[in-house]
Amino acid sequence: MHCCRKTDGVNKVEMEGAVVIVTGSSSGVGAACARQLAERGAHVVVNYSGNRDGAETTRAACEAFGAEVEVVQANVADDADCRKLAAVADKRWGRIDGLVNNAGTTKFCEHSNLDGLDAQDFHDIYAVNTIGPYQMVRACRDAMVRGGRGSVVNVASIAGVMGVGSSVAYAASKGALVTMTLSLARALGPELRVNAVCPGFIQGEWLKEGMGEERYNKAKESLERNSPLGMTTTADTVSEAILLLLCGGDLITGETLMVDGGHHLMTAPLGRR
User: Fold this and answer.
1) Which of 103, 85, 190, 189 has the alpha carbon at shortest distance from 154?
2) Residue 208's pLDDT is what?
3) Would you put residue 41 in left (φ > 0), alpha (ψ -120 to 50) or beta?
4) What angle is formed at CA 122 by the lines to CA 121 and CA 123, rounded to 5 degrees?
């Protein structure tokens, strides 16, 4: 991203004047990302599908840092809405420097319960988690190229790498997003860099509501007990990883960054002592 200036680490990455669209930024990781971008000097397009109040809260948090903000209702599963999001940014600032494809959805269903998902569930989840990011990249491409060198970060999931998570359909959609990241990185260079982050268990209400509080607490405790770093992620720590890829590596493209406290390492066989 041409307007970035790095200082002494990811927490000091400066993005003065950059224009970044963050899909699904009314809450959670998206909201944290929008706030951190604004804190570093970026102008932000805050996107929501249904949670307008959350989007306005994110706007206020961004504007408190002096950022210029547009709030746009759009469903990334709809190509016309994706083009609308890009057009708002392009009209306001004349370019797009960064795109964070964060919007996502799921259906909580045990992987062994094959009757718990039907074809429509797969269509609905893929429409947002996989097709949505593709449509957003396509909608933003021209403005990103015109702006200089654009950067895309797709928010995938450890589920897409390990075959775990809220449902088979969710894991499959995020696995497809990881593969699509490779394809687009190859196809869109050198003008655009395309990378992905794969968060593990993210603390917050979204997982707590989907899993139920008791199961959520047990999972969190188990993951923290069995992870090399002894921690699970938060919206803020995932956002820090997104910013690292968005603006912190001019020669990094087609990469998938695991953000899970190292828990994925525990699937490796134990060495002999």
Assistant:
1) 103
2) 67
3) left
4) 90
48, 126, 134, 170: which is the annotated catalytic residue?
170
Q: Could you tell me the residue ranges of all domains in the chain?
A: 10-261
Buried residues in 32-55 as b, exposed as e (16+ CB within 10 A): bbbbbbbbbbbbbbbbbbebeebb
Active site residue 126: no
Using CA atoms, how far apart are residues 108 and 110, in angstroms rounded to an integer? 7
Q: Phi and psi (nearest 5°) for 4?
A: -85, 150
Cα 1 from Cα 17, distance rounded (Å): 11
What does each C-alpha distance from 214 to 94, 170, 218 come to in angstroms? 49, 22, 6
> To which residue do tokens 């959520």 refer?
216
Beta-carbon contacts of 120 under 8 Å, excluding residues fewer than 6 positions away, are none
In this structure, the strands spanning 69-73 and 43-48 are parallel
Of the candidates 98, 104, 121, the one whose C-alpha atom is nearest the C-alpha of residue 195 is: 98
| CATH 3.40.50.720, applies to 10-261 | yes
CA-based nearest residue to 4, from 253, 255, 243 = 243
Residue with the two structure tokens 């047990």 = 218
- Within the chain, which residues score under 50 in pLDDT? 2, 5-12, 270-273
